[in-house]
Automatic annotation (TrEMBL):
Protein name per UniProt: Uncharacterized protein
SUPFAM superfamilies the UniProt entry points to: Thioesterase/thiol ester dehydrase-isomerase (SSF54637)
GO MF annotation list: fatty acyl-CoA hydrolase activity
Listed Pfam families: 4HBT_2 (PF13279)
Gene3D superfamilies xref list: Hotdog Thioesterase
Keyword Hydrolase part of the UniProt annotation: yes
Family, similarity comment: Belongs to the 4-hydroxybenzoyl-CoA thioesterase family.
Keywords: Hydrolase
InterPro entries cross-referenced by the UniProt entry: 4-hydroxybenzoyl-CoA_TE (IPR050563), HotDog_dom_sf (IPR029069), YbgC/YbaW (IPR006684)
Amino acid sequence: MTAQGGYRSEMLMYYEDTDLTGAIYAGNYFKYFERARDEAVGIDVLKTLMDKEGLALYVRKMGEMTFKGGAKHADTLVVESSVEAPSDFRLVFKQRASVKDRPETIIVETDVEVVCIDMNTQRVAKIPTQIREALRI
């Protein structure tokens, strides 16, 4: 959690994340943002909800991903996430990434709308209390 009430995840960039020039593949940022959301909620919370209640978070909508720069091999990527709950059924994560050595420079940002899906019925469900408590919303 960051001092502003958001969430912060750090990820080391490996050679496998890069192209021939050493820059991180643009598509990988989707994975990094997903990992940051998982860490914000808590892997244990998500796993318990999936295994015991048949509930899973699902990306419903992702805003335009805006690239203002990029990370390179051996950089530490920092993903900061804040979350809002505009309804009982939706969460909106505002996510942005920077390189740890250059925290003032946002290199990628997007908004992600997430819903909870009942895996048995394939219908949208209310965001569980466990997730709301984990996110403090």
